[in-house]
């Protein structure tokens, strides 16, 4: 038999593949859990349950540490898209949590993430901020919605300065613009159209 294409060598490579596949499955499992916790963290923030949100955030941090440790030991594993998706979701959840708790966004360095995932996550946070602002407006808190509008505008201007060349990131800038316009429209209808309806007697 031609070297090294022997049965023994084949079995050795098969074992290495099994190890790789097991590690890949582990990364996918951790990434899915990070994504799930991200959504649960944001949902907890929307319900003003900051204790639950903090718990979910800490769980995500532990999962990310484990996920990155596995990927670091195998360069091929570090290129799995699921890792990037999970990290982006983590940034989004952390941004919402820190904004609602401390009125600020964490830096890339605080979150120990890459610039691409940080930028994407911060822009995605605009959508969740819109939902929170809408909830607040329904409860009568228009001033909070105005504060969120200003913050989303800051996100938009910040990203214009960052000026990413990546197509997907540039597309997200348009997403932030749409979110900003939508919130401005909601505020307009709440502040202007609402009183008009009350005057004309068309609002119950």
UniProtKB/TrEMBL annotation:
Top-level taxon of the source organism: Archaea
Keyword set, alphabetical order: Coiled coil, Magnesium, Metal-binding
Record carries keyword Magnesium: yes
GO terms of molecular function: metal ion binding; sequence-specific DNA binding
Stored InterPro entries: Translin_fam, Translin_sf
Amino acids binding Mg(2+): 92, 128
Coiled-coil zones: 43-70
A Pfam short name: Translin
PANTHER family given in the database record: TRANSLIN AND TRANSLIN ASSOCIATED PROTEIN X
Name of the molecule in the record: Haloacid dehalogenase
């Amino acid at each position: 038999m031609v070297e090294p294409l022997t049965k023994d060598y084949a079995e050795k490579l098969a074992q290495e593949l099994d190890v790789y596949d097991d590690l890949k499955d582990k990364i996918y499992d951790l990434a899915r859990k990070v994504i799930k916790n991200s959504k649960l963290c944001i949902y907890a923030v929307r319900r003003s349950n900051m204790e639950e949100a903090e718990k979910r955030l800490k769980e995500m941090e532990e999962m990310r540490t484990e996920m990155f440790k596995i990927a670091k030991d195998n360069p091929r594993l570090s290129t799995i898209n699921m890792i990037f998706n999970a990290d982006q979701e983590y940034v989004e959840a952390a941004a919402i949590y820190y904004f609602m708790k401390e009125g600020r966004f964490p830096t890339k360095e605080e979150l120990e993430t890459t610039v691409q995932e940080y930028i994407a996550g911060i822009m995605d946070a605009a959508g969740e901020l819109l939902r929170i602002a809408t909830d607040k407006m329904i409860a009568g808190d228009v001033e909070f919605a105005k504060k969120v509008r200003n913050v989303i505008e800051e996100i938009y201007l910040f990203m214009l300065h960052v000026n990413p060349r990546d197509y997907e990131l540039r597309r997200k800038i348009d997403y932030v613009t749409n979110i900003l316009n939508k919130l401005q429209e909601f505020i307009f209808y709440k502040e202007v159209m609402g009183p008009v309806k009350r005057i004309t007697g068309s609002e119950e």
